[in-house]
Amino acid sequence: MRSVLITAVAVAIATALPGSARATAPCGIFVSHGAPAHAKVIHGATSCRTARRVLARYLSSTAPCSGSACVRYRAGWACSSSYSAFPRIATCSRGRAVVAAYSTAD
Fold first, then answer.
1. How many domains does the chain have?
2. Cis bond leading into 18, ω under 30°?
């Protein structure tokens, strides 16, 4: 009886997710300042090409940033550094879309 209830709850949660939501999608490696990083689409319907472009521009930017997380805004994207979430090094969001850069170091 208990396993039936758990299964029913799991199915209800899975079907309640919005259509644009998807699992983390790996988008390959990009280079910023000569250092490689992995790009991933965390949420939303963003292409891998856009994820790599946005993250590379944020990480290579010399524009002033605000706060301890180095928040920068560009073309509707809000990006910040992720110092305490290693191996994640940066996260950018716009609307429901979230993309992240991860270190290639083990």
1. 1
2. no
